[in-house]
C-alpha cells in the first residue's frame, strides 16, 4: 500500500512502558486537517505527545514524508514540525515578538541571533494571526485568547510542514475559536501544511476537519471523514452521552427533553416551534408537537425534545390518520399552543387543528 | 523597531555601569586594607612590579589573589544560580539546592578526620580536592536520578534529600570524631575568601573560564528552554542531553566555589534576579555575561565590607551577602508590584 | 542515548582522575613530614650516645645536646657559631640561624629555617606566652592571636594595653597584611593551625616561618614547663631558661620523699551536653596529683580514640568511680569557675551524693591555670597543700569552694 504523507503503523502510546492505546494505524495526506476527538482522559494528548516526541513511543512506527519520525535528528524535525501545546507558558520578560521569534530557532545560527529575513518572517506570522499590534507587549500581560494566537504565530514562524495542536481553542471565546480555526484552514489549504490536532468542540471538529480520529478505550475506534463519523449513535457511544443528543446535521448539542404524558400540544411549522420547544424543555414540561413535515426544521428539534411527535412525509398532503392522532393528543393536553403555522396547499387540513385549538382556548378563557 | 533600539540602549547602559563598577571595586579593593599604601605606590607595584618588599607582598600576595578569587567565584556562583533557576523555572533556586554543599562538607569532614588521625595534618589542596569530589558525588546522584524522573521538580526534592542525607552522615561522623579533628569544619562551612594563593587563582580561572564559555555557547538552547520543555524540544533541542549539560555546568560552577571558598549563600539567588530586572530581559545572550559580571562586582564588594567593616575581625562573607542582598531583592520586588 | 553514555563515561573518568590526584597529593604531604624527626633517640647523659643521635647537618659541626629532665616532646641540638637545631618530635625540625649567618647549603628541604632571637613574633599559641614572660623575652612578641581581654598574664595585658603588642587576628583568621607590614619574622602557632592548612600555607608563602608548639602534649607537668628551654635556645636566653626551670623543679625535690596520703582526687568539669570530662590517667594533671601525694581517682583510664588527654564520660560512669573520691577539683579552664557547692549540685543533682561534697572537700582552679605554663608546677604544691589540710592563702591556683 502506498505510504501516505504521515503514516502511522501499529503505534502504541502510553506512560512508563504501559500502553494506553495500541495498534494505531492510519494515514494522513499532505494538507489535511485531522482532528482527534474523544472523551476526557481518553489519550488524545498522549497520542499527540508521542507524535511530537515529547513522549517515547512504546511500539510501532510513524513515517513522516517517507522518513522515520523517530530517527530524525531533533534539529531537522524542528524545521518540519511545529507544535502548540496546552501547557502554560510563562516566559519571563519576553514580549510577544520575542515569543514568536523563538520559532526561528531552527533557522538561526549558533548564537540564535535573528537575521533580517528572520525578522521579516516573524512579522508575517504575526500578520497571519492578526496580532501585529501585540508585538511589543509583554507576553504575560495579554489575555489567554491573544496568547493562543501568539503561540500559533510562533508555530507558523517555524515554517513547518506539519503542525500539531493540543486543544488549541480551549480558552478562547467564540470569536477567537473561529478565527484560529479559519487561520488553520487557510494554512492547510493554501500552504499545504498538514494539521493534526485535538478538539473538545466536536461541532467545530466536524466543520473544519478532513478526517476525524475517535479515541476511545485502548484503540482508535473510528477513523474517517466527518460524514462517516458524525452519526448520532457513533457520537453517543464515543462520549457515552446519556444526557442529551448531538445533532449531526447541524453539529449542535441538545439537552434531553422531558418524558411523560404530554401536557402541551404545540402547533407549528417552518421553525416557529423551536423557541417554544426550548422554553417548554427548560420548564421541564412534556409536550407534543405536530403536525410536522419531516423536512421541517421544527421536526429536527422536536424529535429530540418532544414526548410525542406527529409527522407527515414531506411534500404530501396531511393524512387523516395524522389529523386523528393529533386531535387525540390535543384532547389529552391541558394546553394547546399555536406557535405559528404557515398554511399552504399541502397542509390545508392543519386549519382544522388550528380551529380546534382556538375553540378549546376560548372555552378556557370563558371559564 | 523602536523597542529594539531602546533595548540595545538599555543593555549598553547596564553593561557600562557594571564594567565601571567592576573597575571601581577593583581599585577600592586594592587600595583598602589594614595597611595604608599610597596610590602611586600601588600603580608602581602593579605595572612596574617594583616596590618595597612589604608593600609588594601585601598587594601581590594578599590583596590581588583575594579580590581576583572573589571576582571569579562571585561570577561563577551567580551563573550557577541562573542556570538552576532557568532549569527549574523557579526564581528562588540557588546554586546549592541540589545538595552540593552538603556533599562537599561530608567529604571534607571525612578527609579532615582521616588525615588528622593518620598524618596529624592535612594540606589545603587535599581539602580543595575533597570538596570537589564531594560535590561531584552529589552531582552524580542527581544526574542518575534525572534520567528516571519525569518531572524536573522531582529533582529539587531529590537534591534536598541528598542534602539532608549528607548532612546526617556528616553529623554522624562528627559525633564520633575527636573535637580537635573537626573543629574547623564549622569554619570551613562558613565560607571565606581569605588566604587565596595565585595557584588557587589560576585553577579557578581555568575551570570557571572554560565553564563560562560553555555556558555562553549554550545561550540559544537556554533561550529556547525559557518557553518550557515541550516547546524547547519542538525547536530542535535534545532535552535529555540539555538537562544533563545544564545541571553539569551549574554544578561545576558551584563545586568550584565550594572547593576554594566554602559555601557562600545568597549570591546565586539574588544576582541573576537583579540582573534580569535591570536589563529588563531574560535573553541569555546578555543575561549570561551580565550575571557573571554582576556576581563578580557583588562578591568583591561584599568581600571588601567583610574585610574592613570591623577590622581586624573579619565578618563571615555569607552574612554580608545576605544582609546586603536580601533588602535589595525585596526592594526590587516591591518596585515591580507597584509598576504593575 | 549514546550521548548520555559518553557523558557518564566522562564523569567517571573525571572522578577517577580526581581520586588519583588526591592520592598523589596525599603522597606528597606524607613525605613532607619531618624526615629526620623519628630518628632522634631519647637523650641520655652519655655523650657518645648523643653524638650518634644528633642529626648531621652539612657544613655545621655538632657541639652538644640539651639536657632534658621531664620533657619528651622535643630535642635541642647545638652546633657551632650559635646554630641550633630544634627537633619537635612527630612534627618538624627547625634550624635556628643566628643573625648575619648563612643558611647551610644542602639543608634538608623539610627543615624549617627560623632566625635566632626573632624580635617580631606573632604568637597564637597561648601556652607559650608565660614561658616567654619568664625568660623576659615578652617584648619580642609584637602580635598576639588573642584579644587583650583573653589574657591573664599581667605583663601580656600591660603590653597590649600599652600598644606594644597588638591583636593580629586569631589563629584561623590572621591579619596577613598586619603580619607583613610589621615584618613578622616568626609565627608561633598551636597544633590547631594544622586544621586550617590554608592559613599555615599562606603565612609560609608570605615568607614567615611557622613554629608549632606542642608543649600541651607533654604528660609530665614539668615537661610542659621544660619547653622554656626550647624557647630559651630560640631566643638566645638559654641561661635564664635553665635558672627558671630549676626553681620549678624544686617542688618535685621537696616532695620526693613525701609519703603518699592515698587520698583520692577527682579532676573534671561538666560539659554543656552533660558529660563529665576528665583526664586520662597518663596525663600531666594526674601526675601532679601523684607527685603531690595523692591518687588520681581513675587509676587506669585510657583514651581509646585519640591522643587527646581529655576523656568524656557519662555521669553514670563517672559516678561509679568518683563517688568515693576524697577530694574534688573542678577544672575551670574550659567551663566557668564555680563559686559554691550548690552551683556544682545545680549542674547535676547526683553530685550531692559524692563523698567529697558531703565532706566539703570541693576545690576549684582559677582560670589563670591554663595560661600559666611556666609555673604549672605550683599546682603540685597547691594539691599537696590541699591534701595536707594546709593554708589556702599559700595556694596559687586552687581555692576551696563552699
Q: Which secondary structure elements does this structure contain, and how are they paired or packed?
A:
The complex is a heterotrimer of chains A (367), B (340) and C (402).
Chain A: E1 6-15, E2 18-28, E3 33-37, H1 44-51, E4 59-64, E5 67-68, H2 74-80, E6 81-84, H3 96-101, H4 116-128, H5 144-157, E7 162-166, H6 174-191, E8 194-198, H7 202-208, E9 211-216, E10 219-224, H8 226-229, H9 232-239, E11 245-247, E12 252-254, E13 264-268, H10 273-282, E14 287-293, H11 297-305, E15 308-312, H12 320-332, E16 335-340, H13 350-366
Parallel strand pairs in A: 3-8, 3-9, 6-7, 7-8, 13-14, 13-16, 14-15
Antiparallel strand pairs in A: 1-2, 1-4, 4-5, 9-10, 11-12
Helix pairs in contact in A: 4-5, 10-11, 12-13
Chain B: H1 2-31, H2 39-48, H3 53-88, H4 100-119, H5 124-148, H6 152-176, H7 179-182, H8 185-190, H9 198-217, H10 219-225, H11 229-234, H12 239-261, H13 267-279, H14 284-308, H15 317-339
Helix pairs in contact in B: 1-14, 2-3, 3-9, 3-12, 3-13, 3-14, 4-5, 4-6, 5-6, 5-12, 9-12, 13-14, 13-15, 14-15
Chain C: H1 2-32, H2 47-53, E1 62-65, E2 74-79, E3 84-88, E4 92-97, E5 112-115, E6 121-124, H3 126-134, E7 141-144, H4 154-162, E8 166-167, H5 176-182, E9 186-189, H6 197-205, E10 210-212, H7 221-225, H8 227-235, H9 238-255, E11 263-270, E12 276-279, H10 284-292, E13 294-296, E14 310-313, H11 315-322, E15 327-330, H12 341-347, H13 355-358, E16 362-365, H14 377-387, E17 398-400
Parallel strand pairs in C: 4-5, 6-7, 6-9, 7-8, 9-10, 11-13, 11-15, 15-16
Antiparallel strand pairs in C: 1-2, 2-3, 3-4, 11-12, 12-14, 16-17
Helix pairs in contact in C: 3-8, 8-9, 9-14, 10-14
How is this structure best summarized?
The complex is a heterotrimer of chains A (367), B (340) and C (402). Chain A has 367 residues and is α/β, with parallel strands linked by helices. Chain A has helices at 44-51, 74-80, 96-101, 116-128, 144-157, 174-191, 202-208, 226-229, 232-239, 273-282, 297-305, 320-332, 350-366; strands at residues 6-15, 18-28, 33-37, 59-64, 67-68, 81-84, 162-166, 194-198, 211-216, 219-224, 245-247, 252-254, 264-268, 287-293, 308-312, 335-340.
Which key phrases capture this entry?
heterotrimer, B: 340 residues, mainly alpha, 15 helices, 0% strand, globular, C: 402 residues, alpha/beta, seven-stranded mixed β-sheet, five-stranded mixed β-sheet, 17 strands, 36% helix
Amino acid at each position: 500500500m502506498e505510504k501516505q504523507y504521515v503514516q502511522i503503523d501499529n503505534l502504541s502510546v502510553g506512560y512508563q512502558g504501559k500502553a494506553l492505546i495500541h495498534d494505531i494505524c492510519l494515514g494522513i495526506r499532505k494538507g489535511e486537517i485531522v482532528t482527534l476527538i474523544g472523551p476526557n482522559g481518553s489519550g488524545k494528548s498522549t497520542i499527540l505527545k508521542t507524535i511530537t516526541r515529547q513522549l517515547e513511543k512504546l511500539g510501532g512506527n510513524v513515517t513522516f514524508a517517507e522518513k522515520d519520525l523517530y530517527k530524525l535528528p531533533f534539529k531537522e524535525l524542528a524545521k518540519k514540525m511545529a507544535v502548540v501545546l496546552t501547557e502554560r507558558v510563562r516566559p519571563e520578560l519576553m514580549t510577544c515578538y520575542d515569543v514568536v521569534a523563538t520559532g526561528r530557532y531552527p533557522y538561526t545560527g549558533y548564537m540564535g541571533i535573528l537575521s533580517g529575513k528572520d525578522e521579516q518572517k516573524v512579522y508575517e506570522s504575526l500578520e497571519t494571526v492578526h496580532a501585529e499590534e501585540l508585538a511589543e507587549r509583554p507576553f504575560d500581560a495579554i489575555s489567554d485568547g491573544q496568547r493562543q494566537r501568539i503561540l500559533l504565530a510562533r508555530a507558523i514562524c517555524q515554517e513547518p510542514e506539519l503542525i500539531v495542536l493540543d486543544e488549541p481553542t480551549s480558552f478562547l471565546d467564540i470569536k477567537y475559536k473561529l478565527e484560529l480555526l479559519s487561520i488553520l484552514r487557510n494554512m492547510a489549504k493554501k500552504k499545504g501544511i498538514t494539521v493534526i490536532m485535538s478538539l473538545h468542540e466536536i461541532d467545530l471538529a466536524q466543520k473544519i476537519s478532513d478526517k476525524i480520529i475517535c479515541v476511545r478505550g485502548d484503540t482508535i475506534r473510528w477513523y474517517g471523514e466527518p460524514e462517516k463519523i458524525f452519526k448520532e449513535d457513533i457520537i453517543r457511544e464515543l462520549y457515552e452521552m446519556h444526557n442529551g443528543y448531538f445533532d449531526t446535521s447541524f453539529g449542535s448539542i441538545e439537552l434531553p427533553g422531558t418524558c411523560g404524558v404530554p401536557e402541551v400540544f404545540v402547533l407549528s411549522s417552518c421553525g416557529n416551534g423551536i423557541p417554544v420547544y426550548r422554553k417548554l424543555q427548560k420548564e421541564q414540561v412534556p409536550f407534543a408537537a405536530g403536525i410536522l413535515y419531516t423536512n421541517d426544521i421544527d421536526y429536527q428539534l422536536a424529535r429530540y425534545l418532544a414526548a410525542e411527535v406527529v409527522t407527515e412525509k414531506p411534500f404530501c398532503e396531511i393524512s387523516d390518520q395524522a389529523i386523528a392522532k393529533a386531535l387525540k393528543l390535543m384532547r389529552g393536553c391541558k394546553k394547546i399552543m399555536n406557535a405559528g403555522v404557515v398554511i399552504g396547499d399541502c397542509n390545508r387540513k392543519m386549519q382544522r387543528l388550528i380551529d380546534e385549538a382556538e375553540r378549546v382556548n376560548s372555552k378556557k378563557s370563558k371559564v | 523597531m523602536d523597542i529594539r533600539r531602546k533595548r540595545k540602549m538599555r543593555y549598553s547602559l547596564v553593561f557600562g555601569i557594571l564594567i565601571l563598577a567592576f573597575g571601581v571595586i577593583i581599585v577600592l579593593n586594592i587600595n583598602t586594607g589594614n595597611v595604608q599604601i599610597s596610590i602611586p605606590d600601588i600603580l608602581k607595584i602593579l605595572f612596574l612590579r617594583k616596590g618595597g618588599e612589604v608593600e609588594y607582598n601585601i598587594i601581590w600576595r594578599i590583596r590581588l589573589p583575594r579580590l581576583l578569587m572573589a571576582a571569579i567565584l562571585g561570577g561563577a556562583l551567580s551563573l550557577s544560580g541562573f542556570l538552576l533557576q532557568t532549569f527549574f523555572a523557579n526564581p528562588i533556586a540557588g546554586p546549592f539546592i541540589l545538595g552540593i554543599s552538603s556533599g562537599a562538607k561530608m567529604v571534607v569532614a571525612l578527609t579532615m578526620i582521616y588525615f588528622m588521625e593518620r598524618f596529624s595534618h592535612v594540606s589545603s589542596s587535599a581539602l580543595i580536592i575533597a570538596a570537589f569530589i564531594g560535590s561531584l558525588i552529589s552531582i552524580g546522584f542527581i544526574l542518575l536520578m534525572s534520567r528516571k524522573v519525569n518531572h524536573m521538580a522531582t529533582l529539587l526534592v531529590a537534591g534536598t534529600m541528598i542534602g539532608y542525607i549528607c548532612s546526617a552522615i556528616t553529623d554522624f561522623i562528627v559525633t564520633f570524631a575527636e573535637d580537635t579533628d573537626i573543629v574547623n569544619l564549622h569554619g570551613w562551612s562558613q565560607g571565606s575568601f581569605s588566604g587565596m594563593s595565585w595557584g588557587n587563582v589560576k585553577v579557578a580561572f581555568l575551570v570557571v573560564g572554560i565553564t563560562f564559555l560553555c555556558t555562553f555557547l549554550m545561550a540559544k538552547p537556554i533561550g529556547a528552554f525559557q518557553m518550557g520543555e515541550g516547546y524547547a524540544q519542538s525547536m530542535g533541542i535534545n532535552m535529555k542531553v540539555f538537562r544533563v549539560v545544564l545541571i553539569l555546568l551549574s554544578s561545576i560552577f558551584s563545586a568550584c566555589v565550594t572547593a576554594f571558598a566554602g559555601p557562600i549563600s545568597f549570591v546565586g539567588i539574588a544576582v541573576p534576579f537583579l540582573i534580569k530586572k535591570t536589563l529588563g530581559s531574560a535573553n541569555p545572550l546578555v543575561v549570561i555575561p551580565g550575571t557573571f559580571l554582576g556576581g563578580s562586582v557583588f562578591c568583591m564588594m561584599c568581600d571588601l565590607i567583610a574585610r574592613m567593616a570591623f577590622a581586624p575581625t573579619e565578618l563571615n562573607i555569607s552574612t554580608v551577602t545576605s544582609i546586603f542582598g536580601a533588602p535589595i531583592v525585596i526592594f526590587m520586588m516591591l518596585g515591580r508590584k507597584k509598576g504593575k | 542515548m549514546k550521548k548520555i553514555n559518553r557523558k557518564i563515561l566522562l564523569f567517571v573518568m573525571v572522578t577517577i582522575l580526581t581520586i588519583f590526584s588526591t592520592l598523589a597529593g596525599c603522597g606528597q604531604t606524607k613525605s613532607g613530614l619531618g624526615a629526620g624527626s623519628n630518628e632522634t633517640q631519647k637523650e641520655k647523659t652519655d655523650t657518645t650516645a648523643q653524638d650518634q643521635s644528633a642529626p648531621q647537618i652539612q657544613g655545621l659541626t655538632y657541639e652538644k645536646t640539651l639536657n632534658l629532665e621531664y620533657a619528651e616532646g622535643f630535642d635541642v641540638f647545638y652546633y657551632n657559631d650559635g646554630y641550633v637545631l630544634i627537633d619537635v618530635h612527630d612534627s618538624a625540625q627547625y634550624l635556628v640561624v643566628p643573625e648575619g649567618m648563612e643558611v647551610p647549603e644542602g639543608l634538608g628541604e623539610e627543615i624549617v629555617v627560623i632566625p635566632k632571637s626573632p624580635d617580631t613574633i606573632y604568637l597564637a599559641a597561648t601556652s607559650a606566652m608565660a614561658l616567654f614572660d619568664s625568660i623576659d623575652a615578652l617584648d619580642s612578641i609584637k602580635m598576639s592571636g588573642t584579644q587583650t581581654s583573653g589574657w591573664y598574664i599581667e605583663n601580656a595585658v600591660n603590653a597590649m594595653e600599652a600598644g606594644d603588642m597588638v591583636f593580629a587576628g586569631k589563629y584561623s583568621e590572621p591579619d596577613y597584611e598586619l603580619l607583613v607590614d610589621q615584618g613578622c619574622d616568626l609565627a608561633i602557632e598551636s597544633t590547631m593551625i594544622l586544621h586550617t592548612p590554608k592559613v599555615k600555607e599562606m603565612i609560609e608563602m608570605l615568607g614567615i616561618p611557622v613554629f608549632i608548639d606542642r608543649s600541651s602534649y607533654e604528660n609530665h607537668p614539668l615537661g610542659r614547663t621544660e619547653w622554656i628551654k626550647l624557647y630559651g635556645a630560640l631566643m638566645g636566653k638559654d641561661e635564664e631558661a635553665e635558672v627558671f626551670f630549676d626553681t620549678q623543679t624544686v617542688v618535685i625535690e621537696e616532695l620526693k620523699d613525701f609519703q603518699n596520703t592515698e587520698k583520692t582526687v577527682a579532676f573534671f568539669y561538666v560539659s554543656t551536653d552533660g558529660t563529665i570530662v576528665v583526664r586520662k590517667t597518663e596525663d600531666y594533671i594526674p601526675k601532679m596529683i601523684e607527685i603531690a601525694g595523692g591518687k588520681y581517682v581513675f587509676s587506669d583510664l585510657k583514651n581509646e580514640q585519640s591522643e587527646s588527654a581529655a576523656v568524656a564520660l557519662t555521669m553514670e560512669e563517672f559516678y561509679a568511680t568518683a563517688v568515693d573520691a576524697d577530694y574534688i577539683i573542678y577544672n575551670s579552664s574550659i567551663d566557668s569557675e564555680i563559686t559554691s557547692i550548690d552551683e556544682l549540685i545545680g549542674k547535676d543533682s547526683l553530685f550531692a551524693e559524692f563523698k567529697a561534697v558531703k565532706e566539703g572537700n570541693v576545690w576549684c582552679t582559677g582560670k589563670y591555670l591554663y595560661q600559666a605554663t611556666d609555673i604549672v608546677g605550683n599546682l603540685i604544691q597547691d594539691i599537696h597543700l590541699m591534701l595536707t589540710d594546709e593554708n589556702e592563702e599559700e595556694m596559687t591556683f586552687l581555692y576551696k569552694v563552699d
